[in-house]
Amino acid sequence: xxxxxxxxxxxxxxxxxxxxxxxxxxxxxxxxxxxxxxxxxxxxxxxxxxxxxxxxxxxxxxxxxxxxxxxxxxxxxxxxxxxxxxxxxxxxxxxxxxxxxxxxxxxxxxxxxxxxxxxxxxxxxxxxxxxxxxxxxxxxxxxxxxxxxxxxxxxxxxxxxxxxxxxxxxxxxxxxxxxxxxxxxxxxxxxxxxxxxxxxxxxxxxxxxxxxxxxxxxxxxxxxxxxxxxxxxxxxxxxxxxxxxxxxxxxxxxxxxxxxxxxxxxxxxxxxxxxxxxxxxxxxxxxxxxxxxxxxxxxxxxxxxxxxxxxxxxxxxxxxxxxxxxxxxxxxxxxxxxxxxxxxxxxxxxxxxxxxxxxxxxxxxxxxxxxxxxxxxxxxxxxxxxxxxxxxxxxxxxxxxxxxxxxxxxxxxxxxxxxxxxxxxxxxxxxxxxxxxxxxxxxxxxxxxxxxxxxxxxxxxxxxxxxxxxxxxxxxxxxxxxxxxxxxxxxxxxxxxxxxxxxxxxxxxxxxxxxxxxxxxxxxxxxxxxxxxxxxxxxxxxxxxxxxxxxxxxxxxxxxxxxxxxxxxxxxxxxxxxxxxxxxxxxxxxxxxxxxxxxxxxxxxxxxxxxxxxxxxxxxxxxxxxxxxxxxxxxxxxxxxxxxxxxxxxxxxxxxxxxxxxxxxxxxxxxxxxxxxxxxxxxxxxxxxxxxxxxxxxxxxxxxxxxxxxxxxxxxxxxxxxxxxxxxxxxxxxxxxxxxxxxxxxxxxxxxxxxxxxxxxxxxxxx
Length: 767
Description:
The protein has 31 helices and 23 strands. It is α/β, with parallel strands linked by helices. It folds into five domains: 3-27 and 63-157, Malic enzyme, N-terminal domain (Rossmann fold); 165-317, Rossmann fold; 321-423, NAD(P)-binding Rossmann-like Domain (Rossmann fold, 3-Layer(aba) Sandwich), CATH 3.40.50; 434-568, Rossmann fold (3-Layer(aba) Sandwich), CATH 3.40.50.10950; 578-723, Rossmann fold (3-Layer(aba) Sandwich). The active site is at residue 95.
């Protein structure tokens, strides 16, 4: 066998959800006979032999390490009961899709036609070599307890019955946060559990692990309170039998602090709720109809902290917050089981995440203005993109510390990056930008802070330590919006049109007039202009009252550029301005220039745009590898539109020989290293990964970046202004909150960069 065959990688099949169907596609090439021979015969023999030598090599050469079985016998499906294995299959397929969507885990769903515990266990054990983990699903109690216990003992891969532990983990995280808001202690609260099935037993055990006291817990089933005097109790129910002489749910709820409903609808009456202690915590988790209607509960008691299993109410206890990420962490360290330490780590990670600032995309997804930790937000939302980077590392670390991990993770930051990449959420550059801005936050004036999205971006930038916001706009509007989103920080608010700012307006007007009095500007017109927010904001930056400026959210790009050019002007040595957009693509970050300013630049200006872009790319900590884009390749067309690109490259090769730049090139050759190497091996770009494209005209650059943004959903940061004397950055009309936050980070880094250059110049002059 060849060395290439011996190094065969796992041929993993991914489920791709599309409307109405699921496509299954391999991750490796399969187009040629050579590809197929590596995937199967004869190439497949070599990994088979390697696995035969050491069974652990199965994780190296196959998809086992990322494959979970979702297994059910259909005896307790959702709220439908024992409907059989075939009828349970749609639920199991859906569960598999959730694994894939939320944690990139591949799944086979397996429906087993037996209700015999021993037969079920033996079936799972016999197929276990195929899988990296087993998710048991919708198996009725008490059989579920024995099945899970035996399989955990007898298999060396993680096994979890999600109906038990999923609800327990999510509700425990919500309960920890609810108790904190209520000012109560887990060790002291009186807890009533309605229901005594698999989920109820597992929830109660996990609450005890977090400090709940056995003598403070009362559990009920369909026959009433589970008391020690009852003779019809299973071993699991007997574990939580109370010595108290009470028989009904109503009696149990007298002065109780917590109600956990895992039973049936409408069994908690308003009278029962009123009998509970102050700040009662009610988790009514029966689906689709909870133990008490949400609106009825909050109308009955204003101090109730309420959670349900429904997505149309706050605080949804949803198992999808748990199982995909718990298995992800377990698989990534090859855990032999999912133990209490791992489950508790997941609980803590979820509880802590709810206390962090919520990304704007989550607010948008759930139609919220500003989600923040409180009575209506005690648990993260299922579509929070941070879950994949928070929960699996916590679970993996707990597996390692508790001794059940066969592999170790050493670089946790790299691991978190890999988790984000699994879901196409690789925002590494954005995180690096944000972290860099936080190192030395600057004063950023937001010229349109009386718009909600701009204000929300300023709030995020302030909370994250990215910038020190200066809010410009109508004071009353800003204060009203701040109250709406609970932005109560002590930040500067300026309304340029008020009498309070007259002295500063006049000072700015004098400076502006003195600079432009020979260009038709009168003192009166200068004073009038200083009432306009963009002129006022630009003068703030000019005069050192702010370090950077963000504008353009509600005004056309040209109307915002004009005052910036008039007041701030070009950087020393610059002859024009340009813009670049940073696109987060599947191949990594790409810079595209010029996307907003220069319509049809000649060769000399194209060269200058490339030089400015190179400086910007380096500002991001990357080395520019630049392709000058055209419809032609290296002299293949005599058209002036192609020759100007060729001339620009010639200028760059002469003026900046150290710069890795070449062209003219068609886009596919620029981006395909193999094609470029084969047809144009002489190019300076041959064998290099291009990260910067300089377009010959505004229309081609603007069209390309917007196509990438809309068709491929590539995240865009920009347009980033280049060539300005001060850090001024203009948003696209109606930019999103995330885009404004990203542009804030750019503005801060730009201010840091310009400040450093000024210090270097002063130091050089001092010598």
